[in-house]
Amino acid sequence: DDELQTDGNRSGHFQNGELGLAATNEDVIRIIAAQLAEIGDQFDKEIQGRVVNDLVRHFLNENLSNEEITLHMSRVVREIIQSIPSDMEQEKAMLVLAMVLTRRIANTVPSLLRRVFNTTVNFMNQQLHNYIVEMVSA
Predict the structure, then answer these.
(1) CATH number of 26-137
(2) Which one, out of 25, 28, 79, 101, has a CA that is 20 to 30 A from the CA of 60?
(3) Residue 113 near residue 79 (C-beta atoms within 8 A)
(4) What are the record keywords, sorted (predicted)?
(5) 131 contacts: CB under 8 Å, gap ≥ 6
(6) Helix (H) or strand (E) holding 17
(7) For residues 30 and 24, what is the distance between their CA atoms, to the nearest angstrom?
């Protein structure tokens, strides 16, 4: 459940069940995933190590609730989006950036994978759910 896929493979579903991949075209999903991965590679070069380290510190702080960490991640994503020149939709940039940050944090501290994954899924459900549904159904 709640898999985070970046390679275009058929994957999980949203928590509220609105998105059912059985009704979608797998080729379309693969194309979207490939495009997002390419954008992610570009963004990855722009993210400074201090940003990742700051997020790691927040994830390691067990006194912070999941909601507080999700809010912090949202702030960081929005700050980075403003600093990276891009002509793409803000929602797409936020989606890719959230996935790139998740990967970078998990690569930095693998033990945080579950917490950072859950936070990213929450962030995507709260901030980008409608955009993702529209993107897949378009």
Answers:
(1) 1.10.437.10
(2) 79
(3) no
(4) Apoptosis, Cytoplasm, Membrane, Mitochondrion, Mitochondrion outer membrane
(5) 89, 91, 92, 95
(6) none
(7) 11
CA angle, 83 as apex, 111 and 38 as ends, to 5°? 60
The domain limits of the chain are 26-137
| Of 108, 109, 43, 39, nearest in space to 76 by CA | 43
In angstroms, rounded to a whole number, what is the distance separating the alpha carbons of residues 50 and 80?
Answer: 12
The pLDDT value given to residue 24: 53
Q: What is the pLDDT of residue 52?
A: 92
Segment 22-68, tens digit of pLDDT: 445 778 878 888 888 888 888 888 788 889 999 999 999 999 998 99
Categorize the per-residue pLDDT at 15 as very low, low, confident or very high, splitting at 50, 70 and 90: very low
Instruction: Find out whether 62 and 33 touch, Cβ atoms under 8 Å.
Output: no
Measured between alpha carbons, how far is 138 from 136 in angstroms, rounded to an integer?
6
